[in-house]
């Protein structure tokens, strides 16, 4: 009995020592093999790649949606605004809500990690010192009638006389496009451009003559007026003409 007890004690010490040294006993996972729960991931790169890159592009360079690795965009959009859009999405557009409180999968901590990562990696505040871009949020409604004239001056050279596109740029009055984007998206695009597509910001449409805050608001109002009342339905004028022939 004493001999058996001694043997058990020796084996226990040996086994324990092996486990402490290399953690490779059968059935014991390696220290680096533990899988992090999805709601515990806080690394910006992993969160961005899994939730943002599909639309905003790898490394934030843009894709179906505008580029987030754009220092100008980050100069005009406050953290609270970015956090709200990520959390709640934008109703009526392709931007979904990501916060768990809104039916998404991300925790508040993860959303904060994305917002902080965008700012830390891609913001360049020193690049815009002394520059006053139009504000991200509109100050009242624009004038669609005046916006038609603003469009002719600043936008028609690329997007065509009526906004229906040209060899240089696509249509921006397409009903399907306008049905999928918000007025704020239009405003942001007018201000920051789409550098990944060669579209200039508010300073470059007419060299030497940047757009004013009112110009931006008015041209957005004109674009919004082209949006069909119901997605997939004809424009009001077209529908009226069709009804007149019946």
- What is the typical, i.e. mean, pLDDT? 87
Number of helices: 12
Label the overall shape. Answer: elongated
CATH architecture of the largest domain: Orthogonal Bundle
Count of the domains: 2
What is the C-alpha radius of gyration, as a whole number of Å?
28 Å
If you consult CATH, what is the topology of the largest domain? Cytochrome Bc1 Complex, Chain D, domain 2
Number of strands: 0
Sheet of most strands: none
Model regions low in confidence, pLDDT < 50 over at least 5 residues: none
CATH class of the largest domain: Mainly Alpha
How much helical structure, as a percent, in the residues?
40-55%
The H-level CATH homologous superfamily of the largest domain, spelled out, is Cytochrome c-like domain
- The SS-based structural class is mainly alpha
Keywords, please?
single chain; 246 residues; mainly alpha; Cytochrome Bc1 Complex, Chain D, domain 2; 2 domains; 12 helices; 48% helix; 0% strand
Write the layout of secondary structure elements.
Layout: H1 2-22, H2 44-51, H3 53-56, H4 71-76, H5 79-88, H6 108-122, H7 144-154, H8 156-159, H9 175-180, H10 183-192, H11 213-225, H12 236-245
């Amino acid at each position: 009995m004493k001999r058996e007890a001694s043997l058990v004690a020796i084996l226990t010490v040996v086994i324990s020592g092996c486990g402490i040294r290399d953690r490779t006993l059968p059935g014991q996972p390696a220290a680096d093999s533990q899988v992090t729960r999805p709601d515990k991931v806080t690394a910006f790169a992993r969160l961005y790649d899994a939730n943002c890159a599909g639309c905003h592009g790898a490394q934030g360079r843009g894709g179906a949606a505008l580029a987030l690795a754009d220092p100008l965009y980050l100069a005009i959009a406050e953290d609270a605004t970015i956090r709200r859009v990520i959390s709640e999405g934008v109703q009526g557009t392709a931007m979904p809500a990501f916060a768990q409180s809104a039916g998404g999968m991300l925790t508040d901590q993860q959303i904060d990690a994305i917002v902080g990562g965008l700012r830390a990696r891609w913001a360049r505040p020193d690049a815009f010192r002394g520059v006053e871009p139009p504000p991200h949020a509109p100050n009242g409604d624009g004038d669609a009638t005046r916006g038609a004239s603003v469009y002719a001056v600043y936008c028609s050279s690329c997007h065509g006389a009526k906004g229906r596109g040209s060899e240089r740029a696509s249509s921006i009055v397409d009903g399907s496009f306008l049905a999928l984007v918000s007025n704020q998206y239009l405003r942001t695009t007018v201000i920051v451009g789409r550098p990944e597509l060669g579209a200039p910001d508010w300073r470059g449409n007419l060299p030497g003559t940047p757009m004013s805050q009112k110009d931006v608001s008015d041209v957005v109002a004109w674009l919004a007026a082209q949006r069909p009342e119901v997605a997939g339905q004809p424009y009001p004028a077209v529908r009226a003409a069709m009804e007149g022939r019946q």
